[in-house]
């Protein structure tokens, strides 16, 4: 049985209107209608809330419809990608800042022979980390708002 038919059957068996179910889930009546007509599918958080309202296991609610199971797997995969880009962004920016701080802490010295010693390589590496961090941040924003 597809997810829309299953939701409609569960709602009807509890003698709930679309409006009443929508209020319980904090969504619009149109959202319930689009689920029942298989125009859209809820995300995992909403599926958990639906299962609680109808006192069903997630297996009973999800595994009855292969489309729903596929959608939830895809949503999980997208979330992992988003988290990965966010963590990469933070790590790269912190590494860039760390390079600049380390460069300023180490500083430059002149030895007895008049030779200048400085950690010159830390500055371009710091800029590289910042650039990579900004690119990852833009990718993260793209994935987050491109739905």
UniProtKB/TrEMBL annotation:
Keyword Transit peptide appears in the UniProt entry: no
SUPFAM superfamilies hit by this protein: lambda repressor-like DNA-binding domains
Residue ranges of the TM segments: 84-108, 120-143
GO MF annotation terms: DNA binding
Keyword Protease: no
Domain called HTH cro/C1-type: residue spans: 7-61
A Pfam short name: HTH_3
Keywords: DNA-binding, Membrane, Transmembrane, Transmembrane helix
Name the UniProt record assigns to this protein: Transcriptional regulator
Organism: Companilactobacillus mindensis DSM 14500
